[in-house]
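Quick one, tokens below. Sequence please?
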């Protein structure tokens, strides 16, 4: 019988798999779409989907209560910051190094911040699995590294920090009796508000392919993905969630090879196996652990 933590880890991995479809869908449907506008439209539609999910379940009052909490606005700003800084980093430093810095920094920063805010010490198994996963991620993108753009690298590091902030704040809010879906809907709506100007600066989505892409990125790779992600917020430590999310670049790479016909060097395949092994190690640990479910979970509406 799987533990609550193991099921939560599985949900986060499924969320990461959905995140990993973004680049391939963009390449297939709207290859020329500008990054900032894509991020803004994704967040706008994704937030609308999350808010609709909460409202259908009768959580309108909880949603309004969340918007009155300053921490939700901090989380929303971090959500918007991650989207913007990630694309700015990859545009300046390159997709490979930008992705590497953002996703590699996030688990360590989330684990440390979560520990500082007393959301639980991530433990040595997390340290080992995260180090292995980051090494694997480095090998995965090693053939396309470009380290000559320090500003872009700083943007990417900022994206990782924003990811850590909204993960840790989301964990704290969901463990204080707020439904995870309510917290995510409130924060993503705030993030969409911040990025709204970028959403209307381009017309790339004024086509059938563009509409399909927006709907997939918004409802599939954001609304559905973050509802799954929210399962992890209730019971997993922030650092563990961020490490499990390293499954995203593995899925993106495999889809690139299988669907787009891209090639992957031997080092890239070794990197893929290392990331998968690290995630398996962390997943086994979660399956054996006792779920750290807060005592007020019965009041959680998600």
């Amino acid at each position: 019988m799987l533990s609550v933590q193991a099921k939560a880890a599985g949900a986060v991995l499924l969320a990461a798999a959905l995140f990993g479809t973004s680049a391939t869908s963009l390449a297939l449907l709207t290859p020329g779409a500008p990054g900032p506008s894509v991020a803004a439209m994704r967040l706008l539609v994704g937030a609308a989907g999350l808010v609709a999910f909460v409202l259908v379940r009768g959580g309108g009052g909880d949603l309004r209560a969340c918007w009155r909490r300053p921490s939700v606005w901090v989380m929303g700003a971090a959500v918007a910051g991650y989207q913007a800084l990630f694309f700015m980093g990859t545009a300046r430093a390159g997709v490979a190094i930008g992705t590497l810095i953002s996703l590699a920094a996030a688990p360590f920063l989330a684990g440390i911040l979560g520990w500082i805010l007393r959301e639980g010490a991530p433990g040595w198994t997390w340290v080992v699995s995260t180090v292995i996963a980051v090494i694997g991620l480095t090998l995965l993108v090693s053939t396309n590294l470009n380290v000559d753009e320090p500003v872009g690298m700083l943007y990417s590091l900022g994206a990782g920090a924003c990811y850590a902030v909204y993960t840790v704040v989301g964990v704290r809010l969901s463990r204080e009796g707020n439904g995870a879906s309510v917290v995510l809907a409130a924060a993503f709506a705030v993030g969409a508000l911040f990025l709204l100007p970028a959403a209307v600066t381009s017309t790339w989505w004024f086509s059938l392919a563009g509409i399909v892409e927006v709907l997939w990125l918004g409802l599939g790779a954001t609304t559905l993905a973050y509802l799954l992600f929210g399962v992890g917020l209730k019971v997993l430590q922030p650092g563990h969630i961020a490490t499990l999310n390293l499954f995203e670049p593995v899925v993106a790479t495999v889809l690139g090879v299988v669907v787009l016909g891209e090639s992957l060097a031997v080092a890239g395949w070794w990197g893929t196996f290392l990331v998968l092994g690290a995630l398996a190690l962390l997943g086994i640990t979660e399956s054996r652990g006792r779920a750290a479910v807060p005592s007020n979970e019965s009041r959680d509406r998600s």
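The CA atoms of residues 34 and 159 lie 18 Å apart. The radius of gyration is 18 Å.
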